[in-house]
Design brief:
There is one protein chain. This protein is an alpha/beta fold and 235 residues long. The chain folds into two domains: 8-103, no CATH class; 113-233, Rossmann fold. It contains eight helices and ten strands. Helix 6 runs parallel beside helix 7 (193-204). The longest helix is centred in the middle third of the chain and has 15 residues, at 123-137. It is globular and about 60 Å long.
Length: 235
C-alpha cells in the first residue's frame, strides 16, 4: 500500500526516492513521530521515499509533516527540542506532553542487540553509553569490558598485553553477527584500525551503524563529560 492519497509511482515522481545510505541516523520513533492512527515505537521506520515515514502496522507511507504528529521525547532538553523542531522545513502537528520510551509500543519478537565498538581507551565512555542504551531503549548491549584497576594494571589494550588481542578481535566480529546494530564510540572523532575494521564488517553485514558524535546517547554523555547535566536523570 502507498500513501493515503498517492501511489508509489506518484510518490517517486513528486518526492523522489532516498539515495542509498541517505537514511537519517535517528529512527522516527527516536524523534517522537506518531502516525495518523496513533502508532509509534518500532512500528515506524523511514520510507524509501523522501520526507515519508513507513508504518509497519498500517502498511502505509505517511508524510512526516502533512500526515504524522510529533511529541517531544523524554531525552530531549528544551534546547534540543526547539532546535529539532526549528530545523524542520515543514512543521507537523505538535502534541502536548512528553513521550517516554517505555510508553512506545515496540512489537519486537526479540530484544534489540547493540554491539559497542571503539578504542579500549574509551571503555569508561562506552560503559555509560551502554547503560543508557539499555535503560532508554530496553536493548541488550555487548562490547568491551570496563575492568576495575585491581584486575588490570594498564589503561588500555589489555588484550595485547595478555596476548589475546587477535582472538578478542575475532570474537567481537561474532558479537556483531548477533547484533541488530553497532554503536561506535568515536569520541573526539578518533577511530582506530580495529574499530575501522569492525565498522566495515558491520556495513558488509547490513547492520545499522550509530555514531557517538551523531547520536542522542552520545550527546547526553558528552554533556556530562563537559561538566553539564547529570545523565543519570535522563530518560
Amino acid at each position: 500500500m502507498s500513501s493515503p492519497t498517492l501511489t508509489d509511482e506518484q510518490l517517486e515522481k513528486k518526492y523522489g526516492r532516498r539515495q542509498t545510505g541517505a537514511q537519517p541516523l535517528d529512527e522516527p520513533q527516536e524523534l517522537g513521530y506518531i502516525c495518523p492512527k496513533g502508532h509509534g515505537g518500532d512500528y515506524l521506520t523511514w520510507s524509501e521515499f523522501k520526507d515519508f515515514i513507513w508504518c509497519r502496522k498500517c502498511q502505509t507511507d505517511y508524510h512526516y509533516a502533512a500526515d504524522c504528529q510529533l511529541k517531544r521525547m523524554c531525552w530531549m532538553t528544551d534546547e534540543q527540542w526547539e532546535g529539532f523542531v526549528g530545523r524542520l522545513p515543514t512543521k507537523p502537528t505538535i502534541l502536548e506532553g512528553i513521550q517516554h520510551f517505555p510508553d512506545c509500543k515496540i512489537p519486537h519478537n526479540k530484544v534489540k542487540i547493540v554491539t559497542m565498538c571503539g578504542s579500549s581507551k574509551f571503555c569508561d565512555i562506552m560503559a555509560v553509553c551502554a547503560w543508557l542504551i539499555e535503560k532508554r531503549e530496553h536493548a541488550a548491549t555487548m562490547g568491551l569490558h570496563f575492568l576495575p584497576r585491581w584486575h588490570c594494571k594498564v589503561d588500555d589494550h589489555l588484550g595485547e598485553v595478555e596476548g589475546v588481542a587477535e582472538a578478542m578481535d575475532e570474537l567481537h566480529l561474532r558479537k556483531i553477527d548477533l547484533s541488530d546494530e553497532i554503536f561506535v564510540v568515536n569520541y573526539d572523532d578518533y577511530i582506530g584500525d580495529s574499530t575501522r575494521r569492525e565498522i566495515e564488517y558491520a556495513l558488509s553485514k547490513k547492520k545499522k551503524v550509530r555514531w557517538f558524535t551523531h547520536d542522542p546517547i552520545g550527546s547526553l554523555v558528552q554533556e556530562f563529560l563537559n561538566g553539564g547535566k547529570d545523565v543519570s536523570n535522563k530518560g
